[in-house]
Predict the 3D structure of the following.
Amino acid sequence: MLDTRPLLLEPKARSSFPALRRGKITTLQVNLGYLCNLSCTHCHVNAGPKRTELMDRKTIDLVLNYLQLQKISTLDLTGGAPEMNPHFKYLVEQARSLGVEVIDRCNLTILREPGYEDMAAFLAENRVTVTASLPCYSEQNVERQRGKGVFHDSIEALKTLNQLGYGIDPGLQLNLVYNPDGLNQPPPQQALEIDYKRELKAAHGLVFNQLFTITNMPISRFGGMLLAKGLYQQYMDILHKSYAAENLQTVMCRTLISIDYQGYVYDCDFNQMLQLPLLAPDSDILCSDRNKTHLSQLLNYDLQGHSIAVADHCFGCTAGQGSSCGGALVS
């Protein structure tokens, strides 16, 4: 049962990252669960085939209610593999009926899994924007991050999406996501997009709309790898030294909130994984982990101008060209 007791508060975590306040919320990012058919090394949610956490129908109906009441224009669906949630199609259809743009953050290989053979056609029929993870156009680099056979399945899935009109029909947007390997920051997004389009077209006849470059966050599975190899502080030093203040104006948390599979609210997907809750309404103090803010508490609450919970991992979004779920923040 939902805990509706008054929010308990604790002091804000110390960080040298600048204070931030939210603008108008345009995007609701919803994590439908941590179940996934892959276990990628850069995954910041520790998703995998053995995870059992999945959003239930009641919480999904709450999401739809919030979309309607707050007039949110974009629903951004993540996981795990969001398509593996049994209520995925219901959520997509209902959100589209409200006129909301739906983004599916797809790992591509799920479209090739038994039981999901009709998923690509479903996405096309509902005019869902597909933002697909493809960390490189090189087979070797992809499989180092994501596992053997993943590159081939990803390419075949992209061919299916192209056949359905994705990347060709202006109403069927197909975007790819690049994640760097190791301690590297993403290269300039525009130049890399040109390389991706050239290589994928030449080798596989594939087309897509945009490439998004995303910095690996020093949390969860990637953060654990850094710690195990004694590289965590070195990576954090790289992010701190690359900090660019101009990126503060367009970081994604200014226009987005993130919902976990239980319906609790965070400023972004990264804060969600760190259990760094949304700041209590009308306060600059963090909610305690025992009393996180639930979406049901915010149905009629305007978060514009509200403080955003920040910590040192936020330097990952402001380093260099900046990073967000929509790629680089500056050209």
Q: What stands out?
A: The radius of gyration is 19 Å. Confidence is low (pLDDT under 50) at residues 1-13, 284-289.
